[in-house]
Amino acid sequence: MNREIPVACKLSEPSQSKREAELARVFEDSLGHSELEDGYEFEFPGGRENIEKLIELVLFERECCPFLAFEFSFSPNSGPVALRVRGPEGSKELTVVCC
To answer: The whole model's pTM is what?
Structure first.
């Protein structure tokens, strides 16, 4: 089944504000980011605690923003972890809060 997923967050306004504060705490550990054609790539230290936070972030975001796609890339030897967040046209404006 190929149906369009609306580019809109399912959270209410008050919940969005709370979530933005939570995201800011996760992204404090970011080593940097780069813009992709259809999203962003963020780099984080490869420690277990950061990986667990990122997995929780993705699990939550998949529920409230189902139009987004997430990809992880793990460097060898516990090196940095890259998180790519991609989506259809219009979704980059919603993820800019992280950048």
So the answer is: 0.81
